[in-house]
Design brief:
The chain is mainly alpha-helical. It has helices spanning about 10-35, 40-50, 55-60, 65-85, 90-110, 110-120, 120-130, 130-145, 155-170, 180-190.
């Protein structure tokens, strides 16, 4: 029996297809997890992505693997936002832009908030890989050195505030809530150095 050997062009096409399918699965998962939290089902993600459920499992054998990939993307986006904040001419503006991005991300993504609460190892691993802790510390130090951020703020306060607002506006609580940006404005007023 003859063995079929793939040409380099066929191999590249398959790899490109696999990359596209992986990207489609991640985009669908981001949407489905944001709406349904950790209760999201792999078959619904496959339908949304327009692929078979086997394709989802080939890329992500367990739901936790998919969550890890989404967390990695999320924390890399946060790190990019922090880098952009460090480029801002005004250190306070850079800090505010980053905290705004982080807060909006938490408020808009139900699964991320649930994962942080129920599977903190997933988010901790992603945060370490993205170098986010160091970048956040630089943003805080820069805003404090400019005299714009309270001296008693520590880098660990930043994710705690973003997560806290995200949980406060979670519609599943059944409690009336304000919008995340209103909470953030109140918190930023308290973080400003003039509030000392």
């Amino acid at each position: 029996m003859a063995v079929k050997v793939e040409t380099p062009v066929q191999q590249r096409t398959q790899r490109a297809d696999a990359r596209r399918n992986r990207a489609k699965v991640l985009a669908a998962a981001r949407d489905v997890f944001a709406r349904h939290g950790l209760e999201a089902q792999m078959d619904e993600i496959a339908r949304k992505a327009g692929v078979g459920v086997g394709t989802v499992y080939r890329h992500f054998p367990r739901k936790e693997d998919l969550l890890q990939a989404l967390a990695d993307e999320h924390f890399e986006a946060l790190a990019e936002s922090a880098r952009a904040g460090l480029e801002a001419a005004d250190p306070w503006d850079g800090f505010v832009e980053f905290l705004t991005f982080a807060t909006r991300s938490m408020a808009d993504d139900r699964a991320l908030g649930e994962a942080m609460g129920q599977q903190p190892g997933v988010c901790e691993a992603a945060a370490r890989r993205s170098d986010l802790e160091r970048l956040t510390a630089e943003l805080v130090a820069r805003a404090q050195a400019a005299g714009r951020l309270r001296a008693d703020v520590v880098p660990e306060d930043v994710p705690a505030l973003a997560c806290g607002i995200g949980r406060a506006v979670d519609a599943r609580s059944g409690q009336p809530t304000m919008s995340w940006d209103r909470y953030l404005k109140i918190i930023l007023a308290g973080l400003a150095a003039s509030a000392d």
